[in-house]
Write a structure and sequence with these properties.
single chain, four-stranded antiparallel β-sheet, 11 helices, 40% helix, kinase activity, kinase
Length: 351
């Protein structure tokens, strides 16, 4: 199957600036051709350690909308992000839409990329979701703790780890108040506080998704947090799920039992202390084991995605992995699903 083509064109000066400022998040002007139509865009590199790779990822603003073009360099299947976001939608957690494309830069083929919908105003508008604020969790200080993740010292700011993307200054105070409140209340007061400030069903479904897919890095960063305009409650959206389904964010094979059923952050721990929230979470996990988190539901999607990519991966000279590794990923993901199902079912019974 032919993949859509995205063609970036940068002028000589702009090309130089983009390369010179590898770690600078300043956008560079360019043009992009999509579906036969060219338009002006802004482009920059994106990612953390991946910026040092020979095949880099891009963020593009096109016609007022944000798109991420992920090289998925550490994922030999190139489908883990796409599969994860599809799975979250089945769990009723709004997630970015994706499609695989062939990316060109100044006529040079860069290979297969994953085009990911940015979480910004168009994301919410398309889904009819009103939002009063939006924060990106950009590093592991976004752990809902009072202390930094790598020390015993209190954070200089409770917003450490977050990038404030939308909402007035008062929304910063609301999020800080929420994080502080997690640690101030216990027992029934904690339950009332969380029920008032957090969309607990959304959060528990997100937690189930992160736990089932095995995203070790997804609990303290790599999510978007927004305050729903109508309810006034915080909700969460997944982001960056390349390190899932049996591999970590560097592409290393990991145990299917790496991620604890309770996840890893202060908010999850506080929620799961409450019998009612814990019971609801167990119900969500059990429902997932009967429905979307099954080979019957997931493997046809895996086969279709990998089948569409196979001829293009074979010809992609920018890939880190041998084609034989790509071909083995269907069975690796299947094995992960089987093993993870058993582990989660056992954890639910013991809990």
């Amino acid at each position: 199957m032919a993949l859509p083509i995205r063609s970036l064109h940068l002028g000589e000066n702009e090309n130089y600036e983009l390369e010179r400022n590898l770690w600078n998040d300043r956008f560079i002007a360019a043009t992009m051709r999509v579906n036969g139509q060219s338009s002006k865009v802004l482009v920059r590199y994106r990612g953390g350690h991946t910026r040092t790779y020979p095949k880099r990822s891009y963020e593009v603003v096109r016609q007022g909308r944000v798109y991420h073009y992920n090289a998925e360099f550490d994922d030999p299947s190139m489908i883990r992000n796409a599969l994860s976001f599809r799975f979250f939608e089945w769990l009723k957690v709004p997630s970015p839409r994706t499609r695989h494309v062939l990316l060109y830069r100044n006529g040079e083929p860069l290979g297969v990329y994953l085009e990911i919908e940015g979480v910004e105003r168009h994301f919410f508008r398309k889904r009819g979701i009103g939002y009063a604020s939006l924060f990106y969790a950009v590093n592991n200080d976004a752990n809902f703790e009072l202390r930094a993740s790598d020390s015993l010292h209190h954070k200089s700011s409770l917003l450490s780890g977050y990038e404030h993307k939308a909402g007035g200054y008062e929304e910063r105070a609301r999020l800080m108040s929420f994080i502080k409140g997690i640690h101030e209340h216990n027992g029934s007061k904690a339950a009332s506080f969380l029920k008032c400030r957090l969309d607990t069903d959304n959060y528990l479904r997100w937690l189930a998704g992160a736990v089932l897919t095995g995203n070790y890095d997804g609990f303290e960063q790599n999510y978007a947090l927004y305050r729903h305009r109508k309810s006034g409650k915080f909700r969460i959206i997944p982001w960056d799920y390349e390190g899932t389904w049996g591999r970590n964010c560097y592409g290393n094979v990991v145990s299917s039992g790496l991620v604890d059923v309770k996840g890893y952050n202060a908010l999850s721990a506080k929620l799961l202390e409450q019998p009612a929230f814990r019971a609801r979470y167990k119900t969500i996990l059990a429902e997932a084991l009967r429905g979307p988190f099954t080979e019957r539901r997931l493997m046809p999607v895996v086969r279709r995605m990998m089948g569409e990519l196979s001829p293009h991966i074979r010809k992609d000279t920018m890939q880190r992995w041998e084609f034989s590794e790509f071909r083995g990923e269907e069975e690796r993901i299947r094995t992960y699903i089987r093993e993870r199902r058993k582990l989660i079912a056992a954890a639910i019974r013991k809990w």
